């Protein structure tokens, strides 16, 4: 991918994701519903419940594939630790995945508001990776200076890069649960945080892209950790990125279990068994039964952190699954979280090609997360009825759907099809 073209694609992808995330947060704040499936359930008409289930399924599929990719990264990242301990190379990957699983499970059962350190760890690991690539770039600049480098070009690989970037930048399914626990939350405060972080991401991605392509050319791996030198500096970068992925893992996992957790909270507040599937009127049940602003602890139920760290009364959870009653020894959302972690860990032991996984997942997410969810929210949940706004939302839905279809067709880098218009040596 030419560097200028790659920077342009990165900028467009970031702008699309920034705008659509702000739309979803504004709709969530207006409706006071803090999971994507539940927000889609607020859409008017008889299709709301169907859309809610459709987006819940879409989130589970797309995030599940992303979490699988995380364990592929963990398997590569923790391989130096397995080598250091002395495990045979034949089971190196399995040991790395097991270590990652043992770290992820307790983090994922913590309340999201206690995971603020994950952002710091992720930033630190990525900054170190960029610094290492910068050092290698500077130290090997003489060896690579004679090699031709394409600064600007065109080809179908642009579409593939867009899909891969979408996979790394789409977090609409996580945005609303994260916004729910934002301190002094407001749409304006969230927007400022988002713009600042996306500016940093743009500089990070474009700088890393330039130096990696200059260093490794067409031989750059879909997981750049595999291109790092097999010494202490490379091993530190691998382990650091692995820890960063583990720290971010619970944030993505929360988007999958948030609807179930919210259903548990409703059931607790109304002293009712957890119903799966949830009743059709679950979104308005709280407003009809419990007045807003009540100060009664009995009516309001326990705080979120109290609910996350279960009291004795919550150790036995009453559930009703398709008219069948039962009692579970743990919260269903905790059980679901552990099951998802074990499933993605098992997949991480089998899948080896991270690039294909990212491209397919990114292309499949564009339509639902960048188009349909913010498009429908902008049309029906924000209360903006201007024709120009409705036209833009319809255009967003159509554009994202087309990009998703095209992205599923173009899944290779198409290096041989690149038409370079600006090359330097």
UniProtKB/TrEMBL annotation:
Protein name: PGA protein
GO molecular function terms attached to this record: L-amino acid transmembrane transporter activity
PANTHER family: AMINO ACID TRANSPORTER
Domain of life: Eukaryota
Transmembrane segments: 6-29, 50-71, 91-109, 121-139, 151-171, 192-216, 236-253, 335-356, 362-384, 391-410
Keyword set, alphabetical order: Membrane, Transmembrane, Transmembrane helix
GO cellular component: membrane
Transmembrane is among the record's keywords: yes
Organism: Symbiodinium natans
């Amino acid at each position: 991918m030419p560097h200028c073209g790659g920077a342009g694609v990165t900028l467009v992808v970031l702008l699309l994701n920034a705008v659509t995330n702000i739309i979803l947060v504004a709709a969530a704040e207006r409706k006071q519903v803090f999971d994507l499936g539940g927000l889609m359930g607020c859409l008017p008409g008889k299709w709301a419940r169907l859309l809610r289930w459709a987006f819940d399924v879409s989130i589970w599929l797309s995030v599940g594939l992303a979490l699988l990719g995380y364990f592929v990264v963990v398997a590569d990242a923790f391989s130096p630790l397995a080598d250091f301990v002395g495990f045979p190379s034949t089971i190196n990957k399995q040991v790395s995945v097991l270590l990652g699983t043992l770290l992820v499970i307790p983090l994922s059962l913590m309340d999201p508001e206690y995971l603020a350190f994950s952002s710091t760890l992720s930033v630190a690991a990525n900054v170190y990776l960029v610094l290492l690539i910068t050092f290698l770039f500077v130290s090997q600049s003489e060896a690579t200076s004679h090699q031709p480098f394409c600064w600007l070009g065109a080809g179908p690989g642009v579409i593939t890069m867009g899909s891969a970037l979408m996979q790394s930048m789409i977090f609409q399914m996580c945005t609303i649960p994260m916004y729910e626990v934002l301190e002094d939350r407001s749409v304006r405060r969230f927007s400022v945080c988002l713009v600042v972080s996306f500016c940093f991401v743009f500089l990070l991605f474009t700088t890393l892209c330039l130096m990696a392509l200059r260093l490794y050319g067409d031989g750059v791996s879909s997981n750049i950790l595999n291109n790092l030198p097999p010494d202490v500096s490379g091993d530190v970068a691998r382990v650091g990125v692995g820890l960063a992925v583990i720290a971010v893992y619970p944030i993505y996992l929360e988007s999958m279990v948030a609807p179930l957790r919210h259903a548990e909270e409703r059931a607790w507040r109304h002293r009712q068994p957890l119903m799966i599937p949830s009743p059709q009127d679950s979104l308005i049940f709280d407003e009809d039964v419990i007045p807003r602003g009540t100060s009664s602890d009995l009516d309001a139920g326990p705080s979120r952190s109290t609910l996350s760290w279960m009291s004795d009364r919550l150790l036995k959870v009453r559930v009703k699954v398709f008219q069948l009653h039962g009692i579970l020894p743990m919260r269903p959302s905790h059980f679901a979280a552990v099951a998802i972690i074990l499933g993605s860990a098992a997949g991480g032991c089998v899948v080896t090609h991270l690039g294909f996984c990212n491209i397919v997942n990114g292309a499949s997410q564009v339509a639902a997360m960048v188009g349909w969810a913010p498009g429908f929210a902008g049309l029906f949940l924000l209360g903006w009825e201007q024709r120009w706004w409705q036209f833009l939302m319809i255009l967003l839905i159509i554009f994202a759907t087309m990009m998703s279809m095209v992205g599923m067709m173009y899944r290779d880098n198409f290096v041989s099809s690149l038409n370079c218009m600006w090359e330097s040596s």
